[in-house]
Amino acid sequence: MTTAPSTSAASPVAARARGVIVLATLANLVAYASAFADGGAPRWAAWLFAASTVAFMTAIIVLGAARGPAGIGALRYPVALMALLLLGGFAAALALPPVTAGSPLWLGLPPAAAAVIYGVGLLPIVILPVAYARTFDALTLTDADLARVREAGARHRARVAAQAQPDGGA
């Protein structure tokens, strides 16, 4: 019995995304572990943590959107823009000076908090839905894809039903 391969499993883009997820997770582990060093976490740990978090988040999006050999198609530009905005938001939060009593507020927040809330939290909420809406027709399942999913579901249900019979389906 043969089954159709998963579209994302066959994608080299999905394979690279899984590799990035593993590497980003290991980088996060290193950043967290550095907190146990004498004197606390070094300054580079926060930067590593920010960069690896952005890499992880972006790779998860790519993995979810990957479709066969074509990868993520037209979504690559909005996803890249989102990754740059996330990285910029985290970098701004890390690079800005500490808050003092005389620090200015950005839209009611201290600058570093504003960079994270607005740059990391709000901007991706605008970019990703717009990108999804613009690429919906090209990237959603076709009628052939739906037929293949339904066929695979029917085969799975038949296999489960055969295994549930007292004689084991033999």
Strand content: under 5%
Give the distance, in angstroms, between the N- and C-terminal Cα atoms: 16 Å
- Morphology: elongated
What is the number of domains?
Answer: 2
Average pLDDT rating: 86
* Total strands: 0
Radius of gyration: 22 Å
The oligomerization state is single chain
Taking pLDDT < 50 over at least 5 consecutive residues as the criterion, the unreliable ranges are 1-8
Number of helices in the DSSP assignment: 5
| Main beta sheet | none
Given the helix and strand composition, which structural class is it?
Answer: mainly alpha
- Share of residues in helices: 55-70%
Order of helices and strands: HHHHH
Give a concise summary:
This protein is mostly helical and 170 residues long. It has helices at 12-33, 43-65, 76-95, 111-139, 143-164.
What does this protein look like?
There is one protein chain. With 170 residues, the chain is mostly helical. It folds into two domains: 12-97 and 107-139, no CATH class; 141-170. Helix content is 68%, strand content 0%. The chain has five helices and no strands. The longest helix has 29 residues, at 111-139.
List the helices and strands and how they pair.
Elements lengths: L11 H22 L9 H23 L10 H20 L15 H29 L3 H22 L6
